[in-house]
């Protein structure tokens, strides 16, 4: 899921188009204002003339020329702003407008990628990986409680599958509602096919619609990125590491399906710990029991999760099997 050269070029062309678009708007505004308020064109002409004259004076050794020019330009700019407001325009009407004021639609703040660049990168990666098509189907609008029975009782909690999923959905919606206010993490565990991945997709869809950066990986894909970055010195994988650590929400699905070993255990701890330090939210889903989690990923990883994550257990009958049975009955 790292950007390749062509994907990077696509994003930079988006920024170039934004800059050209806003430059054209600024040009049309100048033409409009010069017609309606000729005094502003006279001021701009005077600024151009003064700039040339002061430059000559500076070359001739006048050390005060630059300071004098700055004072003159500031005074004339204030006069322009006054003329604009007198004629009913905003004082900054002739300034170029940017969609992202932080990077001024360049994608970079200094040498670092802007937050909007990261959002474009993740959005592009999702578009090209077809995940956006999945999120069109797997979202809260299409979520159904009909696959959760009120007669299926979890012997450990004493709660029905229906009661449990109602509570889990409530917690997830509250997680979304409070996303910018309270730093939080979610841990989904339970049997296969009871809606853990679907619900994580629901959260991803909601937050991406609100322009938050969300990265979704299966555990296998995540540890493959870490392995390529560490052992293969894959530059794309290394670049993706920063997205993994710094995105607003990281979703790790199916933890435990990646053939756990010492490397995956250490990398999981490092990843989760780094995101906790940066106060970046994470959702983990697994079919593992909590006892198995301790055995496979160490007590310190288990401690990090139980101390910093809201633990949500899922129970019920496999939804995929239920759907197949329902389809079979409809076709008979």
Q: How would you sum up this structure, described in words?
A:
This protein is of the alpha/beta class and 332 residues long. The protein contains 13 helices and seven strands. It has helices at residues 5-36, 38-59, 65-86, 115-128, 131-137, 161-177, 196-209, 219-230, 235-246, 262-278, 290-297, 299-308, 319-331, and strands at residues 108-109, 112-113, 186-190, 214-218, 249-255, 281-286, 310-314. Helix 2 (38-59) runs antiparallel to helix 3 (65-86) and helix 6 (161-177) runs parallel beside helix 7 (196-209). The model has no long low-confidence stretch (mean pLDDT 88).
Describe the structure using short key phrases.
alpha/beta, five-stranded parallel sheet, two-stranded antiparallel sheet, 13 helices, 332 residues, elongated
Subunit organisation of the chains = single chain
CA(first)-CA(last) distance = 43 Å
Strand/helix succession: HHHEEHHHEHEHHEHEHHEH
Strand order of the largest sheet: 4-5-6-3-7
Strand content: 5-15%
Spans of at least 5 consecutive residues with low confidence = none
Number of helices: 13
The portion of residues assigned to helices is: 55-70%
Biggest pleated-sheet summary: 5 strands, parallel
Q: Indicate the overall shape.
A: elongated
Return the structural class. Answer: alpha/beta
Which radius of gyration do the C-alpha atoms yield?
28 Å
How many β-strand stretches? 7
Mean pLDDT: 88
């Amino acid at each position: 899921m790292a950007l390749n050269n062509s994907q990077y070029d696509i994003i930079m062309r988006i920024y170039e188009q934004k800059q050209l678009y806003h430059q054209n708007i600024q040009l049309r505004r100048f033409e409009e204002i010069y017609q309606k308020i000729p005094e502003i064109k006279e001021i701009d002409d005077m600024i151009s003339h003064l700039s040339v004259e002061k430059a000559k004076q500076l070359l001739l050794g006048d050390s005060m020329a630059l300071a004098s020019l700055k004072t003159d330009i500031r005074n004339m700019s204030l006069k322009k702003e006054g003329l604009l407001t007198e004629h009913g325009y905003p004082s900054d009407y002739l300034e170029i407008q940017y969609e992202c004021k932080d990077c001024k639609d360049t994608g970079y703040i200094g040498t670092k990628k802007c937050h909007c660049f990261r959002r474009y990168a993740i959005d592009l990666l999702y578009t090209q990986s077809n995940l956006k098509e999945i999120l069109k189907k797997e979202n809260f609008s299409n979520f159904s409680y009909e696959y959760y029975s009120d007669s299926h009782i979890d012997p450990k909690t004493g709660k029905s599958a229906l009661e449990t999923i109602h509570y889990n959905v409530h917690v997830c919606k509250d997680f979304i509602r409070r996303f910018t206010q309270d730093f939080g993490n979610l841990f989904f565990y339970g049997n296969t096919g009871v809606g853990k991945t679907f619900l994580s997709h629901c959260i991803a869809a909601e937050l991406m619609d609100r322009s938050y950066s969300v990265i979704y990986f299966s555990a296998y894909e995540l540890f493959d990125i870490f392995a390529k970055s560490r052992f293969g010195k894959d530059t794309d994988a290394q670049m993706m590491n920063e997205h993994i650590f710094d995105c607003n929400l990281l979703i790790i699905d199916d933890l435990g399906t990646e053939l756990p070993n010492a490397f995956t255990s250490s990398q999981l701890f490092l990843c989760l710990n780094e995101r906790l330090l940066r106060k970046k939210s994470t959702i983990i889903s697994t079919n593992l029991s909590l006892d198995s989690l301790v055995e496979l990923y160490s007590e310190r990883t288990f401690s990090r999760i139980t101390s910093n994550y809201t633990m949500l257990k899922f129970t019920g009958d496999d939804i995929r099997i239920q759907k197949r049975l329902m389809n079979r009955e409809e076709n008979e």
